Amino acid sequence: MNKVKIVYWIATGLLCLGYLAGGAMYIFAHDMVAEMFPKLGYPVYLTYLLPIVKILGPVAILSRYSLALSDLAYAGMFYHLLLAFSAHVTSGQPGWQPSVIMFIALLVSFFTQNAARKAQSPYAGRRFGTAA
């Protein structure tokens, strides 16, 4: 296994683990999350939708059942992490650091996916090569 594949799987594992842990937190600590959301400027009803998306996103990326769905999951995570960072910083609430770490993992995972996976994304480019 070459270095790019190892980097891809570490970044993707970190990204998916973070999203699955976040989804679990939204489910098992819902009261805490629902209390925090208005402080960040978001409506509470999003706390019922986000755990579903936070679980299905990593499933789409890891399974690669549909390449378009996998790319859509990456796009959704991209905007989610940007908005999470922005909400924490502008509201003055702590907790922006995980969104930065996850954002870096997302970018690394997305741009190295074609070198590690046989199904090639047309959007990720070929900078790091393609899987054999």
Search tags:
mainly alpha; single chain; 132 residues
Q: Structural class of the secondary elements?
A: mainly alpha
- Secondary structure: number of strands: 0
Oligomer: single chain
Distance, first to last CA: 11 Å
Helix content: over 70%
**Mean pLDDT metric:** 93
**Which value, in Å, is the CA radius of gyration?**
16 Å
Stretches with pLDDT under 50, minimum 5 residues: none
State the order of secondary-structure elements, H for helix, E for strand: HHHHH
The profile of the biggest β sheet is:
none
The outline comes out as elongated
Please report which band the strand proportion falls in: under 5%, 5-15%, 15-25%, 25-35%, 35-45% or over 45%: under 5%
Q: How many helix segments?
A: 5
Q: Give the number of domains.
A: 1
Write the topology of this structure:
Elements: H1 3-28, H2 30-40, H3 46-63, H4 67-91, H5 97-116
Helix pairs in contact: 1-2, 1-3, 1-5, 3-4, 4-5
How would you describe this structure to a colleague?
With 132 residues, the protein is mainly alpha-helical. It has one domain (3-116). The chain contains five helices and no strands. It has helices at residues 3-28, 30-40, 46-63, 67-91, 97-116. Helix 1 crosses helix 5, helix 3 (46-63) packs across helix 4 (67-91) and helix 4 (67-91) runs antiparallel to helix 5. The longest helix has 26 residues, at 3-28. It starts with a helix and ends in a 16-residue tail after the last helix. The model has no long low-confidence stretch (mean pLDDT 93).
Short overview:
The chain is mainly alpha-helical. The chain is built from 5 helices and no strands. Helices cover 76% and strands 0% of the residues.
